[in-house]
């Protein structure tokens, strides 16, 4: 039976108030406090022809899957209470098991305050609200009885408060929901569609995965380390397959693969559709171009009897082979691309949103912190590196590059196009369809912005109030400091590569230095060093930016010249006060101030080669004590080729393909 949809093809529930729904195979039940169970149209998004298992689940499967469902309720009342909007409860794993941790989430598009409680013999509760929007509360309990009672009671608001409750059976052993079963004809079964509630839960999941205190460095050697942490991953072993524990997969996506892997993982665990296009990288003056759609309903390239193994092979093989940086840079108006552009607003730039820069780097928004009296708003994103490292970065001009050039495609902030099942096939939601629904935040705004206008717009999003220029300057220095410290890790990886005394890393020709495979990709830093040079320009040019946007800054009556002089002096003081350390070839530590790092900007035009010693890669002056421990140099022919393309770094402009 097809899913319930409006005339425009969107699920009707995606834009209306939600009732408390449990998707039980081909049967949907309304189980809110105000109603009794009744059969409704199913939320399954595959018909019998597409996948027989979508309509042949057993009664045991139905009982099993109740706990995984997004439970949704509407509480009527004045706007002052979040109960007037959708408030949802979610329980993981899909089959709560006696004596094993169970994670419970309450989430809402509206500001949320209250107590989330879980009682299954033992009790747990939470009253700390995270995110915004979506807002969510998260707690964990270890049930000791046969049932788990979950409730959310709203507080600290005017009007009728949300009161939600859900009772979930607790099993003696874990069981796998039917949608996660794999076969030679499909990878998993989609049993529901993407809607506002699933998108909000996805955002909450991303934020929980990569949450950390402001200013705290967050880095993992690989994505699977994050997924294997039940304190971060509230979908830990959600399917009962041991997919994050005893049957966990090795997952090391690079920057372009990371958003797809996260989206696919969430879709797999919740029985949602997932798809990806085949895109060109662009070249010869043409932007990337996308076509086709591979989905979870297509036959796996390498079938495996265990669903976790099959998913792991899909991620490491089919997905990794198909997507790349061009997938994110497709033109804004390309309906065949996997992403669509969003508005530059606080609500639109929520966790899970992707940023694709014009030169091939991709990041995933992970957390936002609103503006305070002491600082502007903060946007954090995570990215993958060629060596598999996943780290968190702060939004600023030195990390998030934006440029306008038709040959580069459509850079900027984007979201995944929801995959819908229509006319017997899976399709992407079109721009026209997305534009009809405010919750999609679809906007072509970024297509009309040049670089300065883009960064000005982001300034206005993150810090709408007039800024104290000294406070804003310190934020720039903090971001620069974070970027330099991240580079320390990359250069240290290169030092360890040289320690193995293997053959030199082969250097690609021309613009391929930015995207080659093998040791060069793993240990060279051309893209990172180009970003560092741009970051240095941003810091050094901050006083000019304040002068250009004087209306955005509170200068307390100072003249432009006085403001510039005080900011330049403050910048120098901040740079001298901040220090980083790196490990030299002989294992000794060497300290640099940020002021020294900035003074070496010319040297950083030639410091990306992994065959050079670590001292040279930090721009150590020839003949200095710092460089005395250097023992390795790039081959002469590689140095000559680096010199021939030095203009790219000097002019801060990566070449188009």
Written account of the structure:
This protein is α+β, with helices and mostly antiparallel strands and 657 residues long. Helix content is 27%, strand content 19%. It contains 17 helices and 25 strands. The strands form 7 sheets. Strands 13-20-19-18-17-21-16 form a 7-stranded antiparallel beta sheet. A 5-stranded antiparallel beta sheet has the order 4-5-6-10-9, covered by helices on one side. A 4-stranded antiparallel beta sheet has the order 8-7-11-12, with no helix packed on it. A hairpin with a 2-residue loop joins strand 22 and strand 23. Helix 4 packs antiparallel against helix 5, helix 9 packs antiparallel against helix 11 and helix 9 runs parallel beside helix 13.
Strand order of the largest sheet: 13-20-19-18-17-21-16
Distance between the termini: 47 Å
User: What form results from the Cα inertia axes?
Assistant: globular
What's the story with the biggest beta sheet?
Answer: 7 strands, antiparallel
Q: What fraction of the residues are assigned to beta strands by DSSP?
A: 15-25%
Give the overall pLDDT as a whole number: 86
**Helix count, DSSP H or I runs of 4 or more residues:** 17
Helical amount among residues, as a percent range? 25-40%
**Unreliable segments of 5+ consecutive residues:** 1-78
Structural class of the helix and strand makeup?
alpha+beta
Radius of gyration: 26 Å
- Report the count of strand segments: 25
Say what oligomer this is.
single chain
